Amino acid sequence: QLPIESIRSLSDTHPKPPHIRFQYGTAGFRTLGSTLDSVLFRVGVIAGLRSKKFDGQTIGVMVTASHNPEQDNGVKIVDPRGEMLEAAWEAHATTLSNAPTTNDFLEALDALVRTTKIDLSKPARVVYARDTRPSGVALVSALEDGLSAIGAEGRNAGVTTTPVLHYLVKAINTKDTPESYGEDSEDGYFQKLGSAFQSLVSGRQPLEPLLVDCANGVGALAALSLSGCLGGSLPLILENTAIQSPGALNNACGADYVKTMQRLPPSLADRLKPGQRACSLDGDADRLIYYYLDERGIFRLLDGDKIAALVAAFIVDLVKSAGLENEVKVGVVQTAYANGASTKYLSGRLPVKCVATGVKHLHHAAEHFNVGVYFEANGHGTVLFSPATQAKLAAHQPSTPAQSTALNHLMNLTRLINQTVGDALSDMLLVEAVLAHRSYTGVEWDSLYVDLPNRLVKVVVQDRNAFRTENAERRLVSPPALQAKIDELVRRYDGGRSFVRPSGTEDVVRVYAEAVVRSQADELAFRVAGLVY
Ligand code: 16G
Ligand code: ZN
To answer: Where does Mg(2+) bind (predicted)?
Structure first.
């Protein structure tokens, strides 16, 4: 039986605001922080039920709105293996969050318990965390009310990054098993990353200091803890660490700013010396974008596509050096936003798959490779080593010292890389390890291929749901005839490519265009936008 009375009395203190429709989208619930109280309460109850469904395994809840402005907030649920919530439950979460009254909520809960056959006598455990947003404090206490309403045992992981929370979920659920993922604490995680990194770079030329733009968010705290676990192997210069300054979060800084504006955060202007590497995290430290200034002081972007190219080529080489090239196949997953030049570079070397936008699509596609490298152009991504591949690495008998070294590096990569979800800080160490091995500066990394100029514009339309896509969002099926007009335009541009898709996080339609020449990419984007409008 559901604890109806305890849910009822607590739910009444977290009423759903009328006239707002919530949706569990690509990145969970996300909107103005001040409207989310009832959602957090209900997510607490849902997470408790989800845990019961998994026989008391721990479920995660992360309170964050990532790169969004400071006044926004959001929440997402993490499944027992540290992965994003299963799609069917996204729909349940949406339904439950929109029940107008406590009675409706109770009825919907009852229906959920029956249709998904939840055994209510099972225990429930939930670990939760938040980013540095001021609205997070009250939202966490609404979440805690939800947990106590359903009788779930809560563990507060405090203020930390999204990927740390994902890690914790997996570490807690594998604790004391042969698959143990590591110590279930933030410190345990950073120690694990730090020791894997130090093994990977030992004996190499020491790395030049790296400038890290922390977006004035939780990444500042995490990067500080991490740097304490690197044993001086990588000096970090932390910038934009003002987590207490109202309005500073993600404001004119951070990975999303750098990628969309294609420019340096103004706060770094006097900080970055030509040739020096820098990177930006986003507000919950799951996105990473690199950049540098060339010798003329011109800003050069090294985005998720460049990270994928750098990392995939490195892993392919290690696999070959370890004598495993016939047994371990490396593949790459991208989205339509991947720069055409990156797709060309990669597909000449290994299998490349294109999927719809959103981490869960990339993650699932990457699971089909022995080693799946996935990065969105915006800097979200990681590398997955399949369980069979990890077993193969562990069992492989190298026949030369060179094979043994390469094998060791691969094993350290499996420890360095967060297998649950992309982590800006783990990805940063991965990039730095590869640069150290290749003796690359930003310039050499950048020259793997030359980005095609591109432009992203958003268009406010009457109804973005009228825009439906196929072929991994690369073509529109509706509105009718629009795709034919886009094709007709694209044909007129040298190296032209353009596509239109509805945003999953904002009430807009996005238009992407690229071409061989900057002015042509801009023109194509604006002309396609004109067709959409
Ligand atoms: C969300 C997704 C991100 C995607 C972005 C696209 C997750 C955790 N995050 O932030 O991967 O790139 O949405 O936004 O899946 P859009 O649909 O508004 O273009
Ligand atoms: Zn993020």
So the answer is: 66, 282, 284, 286
User: What is the tens place of the pLDDT at every residue in 424-473?
Assistant: 999 999 999 999 999 999 999 999 999 999 999 999 999 999 999 999 99
Is 445 inside a domain boundary?
no
Domain-located, residue 168: no
Q: How far apart are CA 57 and CA 169, in angstroms?
A: 9
Please say if the pLDDT value at position 506 is more than 90: no
Main-chain phi, psi angles of 156, to 5 degrees: -90, 115
Residue 401: helix, strand or coil by DSSP? Answer: helix
| Helix H or strand E encompassing 104 | helix 102-115
Using CA atoms, how far residue 291 sits from 88, 300, 417, 446, in Å, is 39, 5, 21, 9
pLDDT tens digit string along 45-96?
999 999 999 999 999 999 999 999 999 999 999 999 999 999 999 999 999 9
**Residue 361's CB: how many other CB atoms inside 10 A?**
19
Find the residues whose C-beta lies inside 6 A of ligand 1. Answer: 26-27, 357-359, 376, 378, 380, 503-506, 510
- Domain that includes residue 382, residue range: 304-422
Q: For residue 424, how far is its CA from the centre of ligand 2 (angstroms)?
A: 9
- Please report how many Cα atoms fall inside a 13 Å half-sphere around the Cα of residue 261, on the Cβ side: 16
In a domain, 339, yes or no: yes
Other residues' Cβ atoms within 10 Å of the Cβ of residue 178: 5
Closest atom of ligand 1 to 504 CA is 17
Residues 269 and 325 in one domain: no
Does residue 360 share a domain with residue 262? no
Same domain, 248 and 108: no
Pair 336, 379 in one domain: yes
Q: Which residues touch 407 (CB under 8 Å, ≥6 apart)?
A: 322, 324, 393, 396, 398
Catalytic residue among 66, 227, 233, 342: 66
DSSP H helices in 202-302: 219-227, 254-261
pLDDT attached to residue 141? 98
Q: What is the whole-number distance in angstroms between the Cα of residue 162 and the centre of ligand 1?
A: 14
